[in-house]
Amino acid sequence: MKATVIGAGIGGLTAAAALKAQGWTVRVLERSTTLEPVGSGLAMMPNALRALDLIGIGDRVRELATFAGDGGIRRPNGGWLSRTSAEAAAARFGDPTVVMLRATLVDLLQSVLDPAEIGLGVTVDSASPDGTVTTSTGEERADLIVAADGIGSRVRSALFPDHPEPRYTGLTAWRLLTTDPDKTGAFSETWGRGLVFGVNPIAGGQVYCYATAPAPANTTVPDEKRELLRLFGSWHAPIPTLLQQADPTRILRNDIHYLPRALPALHRDRIVLLGDAAHPMTPNLGQGACQAIEDAVVLAHEVTNGTGPAGYTAARLPRTTTIMAKSRQISRLTQLGALTPLRDAAMWTTGRLGPNLVLRQAAPVIDWTPPKSEWTSHHSGIES
Ligand SMILES: Cc1cc2nc3c(=O)[nH]c(=O)nc-3n(C[C@H](O)[C@H](O)[C@H](O)COP(=O)(O)OP(=O)(O)OC[C@H]3O[C@@H](n4cnc5c(N)ncnc54)[C@H](O)[C@@H]3O)c2cc1C
Asked: Which of 123, 235, 347, 376 is the one with CA 20 to 30 A from 241?
């Protein structure tokens, strides 16, 4: 059985690795000429680690865990709105949350594929439900097409032309890698009036930060570092220092979009949609890539041992729809203006009820386990 995967993002690479581990012949087609992902970090939560175990790289990711001690949600003055312990969370969910470089995850995924299985610089122009893809270099036929072509998926628009396209949330996001000379080490997300700033130490001493703020669509400014300092420079330590340390040429800025309504299905005949192509979500739960990874192993299971693409839709659509909606709810909470004090009071009260409540709220997302299947063990060729 042969699968053509459109897109070599985290979703497409994981899908290829999972299908390969189920005995499929795979070919990934990627329009970019390199696999270089955006230079930033990414949270891999326990649900994703369990899926990565099936393709042989879960432990390689676990080795990179650095989250320790207390962290949580803070006010711009540093006060805590809710507090969680990384150790309590890891004990509750059986695994840590690992914040890592995107590039490291892509390297690990690539290590379970052969270079010949990835076609770089190949743009897919169209995909037909009978299994044919037309590319910049010709035509290919497969038993299954996995459209992992991201939030702007052309395949999604072609399969569901009347479905609304992703919409702008009104929030723009910055991502950057920096260093913390004071080695404060704590992870936190700080919520102000319409503004959010996240601090995540990662293995190797770097700190991955992200920030969101309201802005008209497609706004950029010549000096994004200065813009970030204008918005967050008076917030609690170590945020101003982290921003001062950042390389201004390596600050990423993207507007955040969401799908206003879930798709009616994640497949049509031999085509399946996966990752951001299937369920673009706001980043507030840190689950976009984690869900793409879950999609990949469920897909490989369903098309090999289950009920095919229809089984994939049945297994994935309800869960990803709920997570998409939850993420959007949180993004709306971060966007509140005058109601911010009320929101903060509610969060503070919930936080006072104890970390167990916070963990219980996260449990439906994180307590996921992959389908039982026989997986060929692939071990990463990367040496530690
Ligand atoms: C600010 C921010 C923070 C985030 N933080 C997290 C986090 O902490 N944890 C988490 O799990 N998720 C997070 N996410 C979400 C995560 O980044 C995405 O959900 C994930 O990267 C989606 O992967 P994908 O493979 O589905 O799509 P993409 O990464 O978009 O990959 C799609 C690929 O398809 C290729 N492609 C597109 N069209 C074609 C074509 N026609 N032919 C060939 N190739 C094509 C593209 O070049 C691209 O390489 C965050 C997102 C944002 C914006």
From this structure: 347
